[in-house]
Automatic annotation (TrEMBL):
Belongs to the purine-cytosine permease (2.A.39) family. Pfam families: Transp_cyt_pur. It is a multi-pass membrane protein. This is Cytosine permease. GO terms for molecular function: cytosine transmembrane transporter activity. It is found in: Membrane. It comes from Vallitalea guaymasensis. Its main location: membrane.
């Protein structure tokens, strides 16, 4: 590893136990998006295939986040800095910032739409007032945006309240659905309303935590050993993710709905349940706005002093997406994430673990833009899009160029493997001086 300090290295006294890192991952998995994706899976797959998709999808996530986390543990560096090894400093800046901006702004829009729908449902069920969802989305999008820009001291305590409350509400929702709709019979006789392939289901699962897996080194760099990284990754993601997606899938299968706010209303969850949904979405979504704003700042070359402006832009675009119906494009958005992020990870893994043989003394930060890294990332992302069905959202394009939609194996995994293969080949063909 080159001797120049990056200012991000972790000191020995800053190292933490694997349990403390696992708790971070568990908290990330207990969220509304996981319930929504679980609902999508339940709407398109049998319950048995839902479980298979979850296990394989999160298995892929745990596999690559362990490698990313171990690299972070070795070097003490976060993902954005580590990416400078494979992509070059400028290349990492543009790619990482662009991917994170797309992810954060898209999630902000989706969660604002969910929050707006929940709030409208809550008012309608409690006091009979009908407010259009788009108005509620603007209202809550603005509240979340202001909170992200100016802070709210009580937000941490809201999070402590919202996460356990959401778990309780979800448990009650499953129980109510099973009782109210004779769930056992429904599950036994269930046929998916809008069938999807198992490969598509796996891609959806990967997308729920694709970004989290990629930036795992941001947290795992504080781990004490590689073994602790692996334990925190597997035990932090797999059990919690399986539970949350299964809850969403069960409620969707039994009620026939995958929109979580509609499901909770359908099963007669009390107003406190919808309040929990709103609070959980609120506490999660300000992070999307803030992170999206920082990514835009980095992309545009601003320093952190202008984060309020870029956060406002990120949140404003996200709220606009909520109003125009980004929630209806959830599957397409998730497919895009499941293509971009794993391809990026494949490039970074190839650089450190194959070319660098997993030794931190072989790791070096490259200046400028690394053509090998950028070409590998683009190749992996393109293959993941083609084989993972991302382009299926554009039927006109598929009709003109059917080669852009060739389902084969697992799209995100294809992206990782292709990015790694291309990087290794380019490194052999174009050796560095």
């Amino acid at each position: 590893m080159n001797e120049k300090s990056t200012g991000f290295e972790v000191k020995q006294e800053q190292r933490q136990s694997w349990q403390s890192i696992a708790i971070v991952w568990i908290g990330s998995m207990i969220c509304v998006p996981c319930l929504m994706v679980g609902g999508l899976l339940g709407n398109g797959l049998s319950l048995g295939n839902v479980v298979i998709a979850i296990l394989i999808g999160y298995g892929i996530i745990c596999f690559y986040m362990s490698f990313m986390g171990m690299q972070g543990c070795d070097t003490g560096l976060p993902t954005a800095v580590m990416a400078s090894g494979a992509l070059g400093e400028k290349g990492a800046k543009y790619v990482i910032s662009s991917v994170l901006a797309i992810a954060c702004i898209g999630w902000f829009g989706i969660q604002s739409a969910v929050c707006g729908a929940s709030f409208s449902s809550m008012l309608a069920s409690m006091i009979g007032i009908q407010i259009p969802v788009w108005i509620s989305s603007i209202l809550w999008g603005t509240i979340m945006l202001v909170t992200a820009c100016y802070g709210f001291k009580g937000l941490k305590w809201l999070n402590y309240l919202a996460v356990p409350l959401l778990l309780i509400v979800c448990g009650y929702g499953v129980w109510a659905a099973m009782v109210q709709f004779d769930g056992a019979t429904v599950i036994a006789d269930y046929t998916p309303a809008t069938p999807i392939t198992l490969m598509s289901g796996i891609s959806l699962v990967v997308a729920t935590f694709a970004v989290g897996g990629a930036i795992s080194s941001d947290y795992c760099r504080f781990a004490k050993s590689r073994k602790d990284v692996i334990k925190s990754s597997i035990l932090g993601v797999l059990p919690a993710g399986l539970i949350m997606l299964l809850i969403g899938a069960l409620m969707s299968i039994v009620t026939g709905q995958y929109d979580i706010s509609t499901v909770l209303t359908t099963v007669g969850v009390p107003a406190i349940g919808l309040v929990a949904l709103v609070l959980a979405t609120w506490t999660t979504n300000i992070t999307n706005a803030y992170s999206g704003g920082l990514s835009l700042s980095n992309l545009l070359g601003f320093d952190e002093s202008k984060f309020k402006i870029t956060t406002a832009v990120a949140g404003g675009v996200g709220t606009l997406l909520a109003v125009i119906g980004v929630l209806n494009q959830l599957t397409s958005f998730l497919s895009l994430l499941s293509a971009l992020v794993p391809a990026l990870v494949g490039t970074l893994i190839a650089d450190y673990w194959i070319i660098g043989r997993g030794k931190k003394e072989n790791f070096k930060i490259r200046e400028g833009v690394s053509a090998k890294g950028m070409i590998s990332f683009v190749a992996g992302a393109l293959i993941a899009c083609i084989t993972g069905g991302t382009f299926a959202a554009f039927p006109t394009l598929i009709t003109a160029l059917p080669i852009l939609n060739i389902p084969f194996f697992i799209g995100p995994l294809n992206g990782i493997l292709v990015a790694m293969f291309v990087y290794i080949i380019l490194y052999k063909l174009l050796p560095e001086k």
